C-alpha cells in the first residue's frame, strides 16, 4: 500500500472509531482475474472477473480446513471479506470457490490459493490483502502463445529421410560489387558558401533552411537575433561579431549533422553558441573563429585535421 493510501485509511479508521467506537474486525481484500492462457499468472491477455465467489478457508481444531466466509466479486473483479473480531488468519488461504456468473466461460477451474498478508493494524482493526486469484477456462484461448499452454504434445518419432539423389555442385556465386561508402561516416567539413549553393540543398536533412534560429539555438539566441530569423538568413551574416558567430555556428551545426567525424557534436555546437552569447565580445569572436576553423577542415583534434567537403551535386 502506498503512503498516500495508508494516510487515507488511517484517517478513515480514526474517524470510524471516534463515531462508532472501537469494534474489532478483520478485512480481507483482493481481485480475481480470468487466466485465459492457463499459465498460472496475470498476463496481458487476462481480465478482471465479476460475479465469481471467493472463499476464505482456515485450519480447524482437527487440522481440517473449513470455509469461514464467502463473497462475490464486483464488476471490477474486486472482493472484500469482513471477519468479526480479530481472528488469527495464520495458515488461512483465499481461493476461488464458485463458478462465475457472466464470466464468458472462465469458471471451469480455480487457480492456486493465496495467503492473506497483514498490511495494517490499528484499534483492533486489521487490513489484509491477497495476491490476485485466478479462475481458468477449460482450455487456453486460441490466441494464447503456445509456450503458455500447459499441455505439451509429445514429440513425433524421428523418421529417417531417404538419401537424396546425387546432384552436381552449384556454380559459384558472382562476386558482389563493393558497397559505396556511407557519406555520414566520412570526415567532411563544408563552408557556409557550400551550404548555400542550390546544388547542395539536398544535404539539409535534419533541419531545413526555413527553420527558425530561435527554435534551434534557444532563448538566448532569440533575444539576440529575434524570433523570425531563419537558418538560411543566418548564413548571410558578416561584419558584426555576433552575426559572424551565428553564421559559423549554423554552419557547424549542419556539418555536425552531416558527418560523425566533424569535431563538434550537434549539442556541443548549441552549448558553445549559448555560452558565447552570454559572455563577452571577445568570447564571441573566439567561438566564431573555432567554428570557422572546424568548418574549413583545419580545426584541432583527431576528427578535424585535413577534412574536406564531401558534397556531391544533388540529382
Architecture overview:
Mean pLDDT is 77; it is low at 1-22, 148-161 and 176-182. The longest helix is centred in the N-terminal third of the chain and has 18 residues, at 3-20. This protein is of the alpha+beta class and 315 residues long. The strands form 2 sheets. Strands 1, 2, 5, 7, 8, 9 and 10 form a 7-stranded mixed β-sheet that branches. A 3-stranded antiparallel β-sheet has the order 4-3-6, with no helix packed on it. The protein has helices spanning 3-20, 192-195, 213-217, 219-225, 231-234, 241-258, 266-277, 281-295; strands at 25-34, 47-48, 53-59, 65-72, 78-84, 93-96, 109-110, 117-122, 125-129, 133-136. A hairpin with a 2-residue loop joins strand 8 and strand 9 (125-129). 26% of the residues lie in helices and 17% in strands.
Helicity, in percent?
25-40%
DSSP strand content: 15-25%
Q: Please count the beta strands (DSSP E, at least 2 residues each).
A: 10
Could you give the order of the helices and strands? HEEEEEEEEEEHHHHHHH
Rg of Cα set: 37 Å
Instruction: Outline the low-pLDDT stretches.
Output: 1-22, 148-161, 176-182
The N- and C-terminal alpha carbons lie at a distance of 64 Å
Q: SS-based structural class?
A: alpha+beta
Question: Which shape, going by the Cα principal axes?
Answer: elongated
Amino acid at each position: 500500500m502506498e503512503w498516500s493510501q495508508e494516510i487515507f485509511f488511517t484517517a478513515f479508521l480514526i474517524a470510524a472509531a471516534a463515531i462508532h467506537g472501537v469494534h474489532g474486525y478483520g478485512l480481507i481484500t483482493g481481485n480475481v482475474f480470468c487466466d485465459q492462457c492457463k499459465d498460472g499468472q496475470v498476463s496481458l491477455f487476462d481480465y478482471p472477473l465479476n460475479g465469481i465467489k471467493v472463499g476464505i478457508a482456515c485450519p480447524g481444531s482437527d487440522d481440517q480446513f473449513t470455509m469461514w466466509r464467502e463473497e462475490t466479486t464486483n464488476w471490477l473483479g474486486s472482493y472484500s471479506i469482513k471477519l468479526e473480531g480479530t481472528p488469527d488468519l495464520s495458515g488461512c488461504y483465499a481461493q476461488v470457490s464458485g463458478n462465475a456468473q457472466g464470466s464468458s466461460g472462465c469458471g471451469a477451474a480455480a487457480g492456486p490459493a493465496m495467503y492473506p498478508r497483514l498490511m495494517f493494524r490499528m484499534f483492533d482493526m486489521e487490513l489484509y490483502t491477497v495476491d490476485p486469484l485466478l479462475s481458468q477456462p477449460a482450455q487456453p484461448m486460441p490466441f494464447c502463445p503456445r509456450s503458455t499452454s500447459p499441455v505439451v504434445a509429445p514429440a513425433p518419432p524421428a523418421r529417417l529421410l531417404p538419401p537424396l539423389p546425387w546432384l552436381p555442385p552449384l556454380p559459384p556465386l558472382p562476386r558482389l560489387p563493393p558497397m559505396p561508402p556511407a557519406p555520414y561516416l566520412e570526415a567532411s567539413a563544408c563552408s557556409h558558401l557550400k551550404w548555400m549553393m542550390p546544388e547542395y540543398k539536398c544535404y539539409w536533412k535534419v533541419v531545413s533552411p526555413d527553420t527558425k534560429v530561435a527554435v534551434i539555438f534557444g532563448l538566448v539566441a532569440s533575444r539576440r537575433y529575434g524570433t523570425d530569423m531563419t537558418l538560411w538568413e543566418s548564413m548571410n551574416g558578416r561584419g558584426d561579431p555576433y552575426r559572424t558567430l551565428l553564421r559559423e555556428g549554423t554552419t557547424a551545426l549542419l556539418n555536425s549533422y552531416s558527418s560523425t567525424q566533424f569535431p563538434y557534436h550537434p549539442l556541443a555546437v548549441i552549448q558553445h553558441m549559448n555560452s558565447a552569447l552570454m559572455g563577452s565580445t571577445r568570447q564571441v569572436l573566439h567561438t566564431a573563429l573555432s567554428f570557422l576553423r572546424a568548418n574549413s577542415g583545419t580545426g584541432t583534434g583527431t576528427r578535424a585535421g585535413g577534412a574536406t567537403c564531401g558534397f556531391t551535386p544533388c540529382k
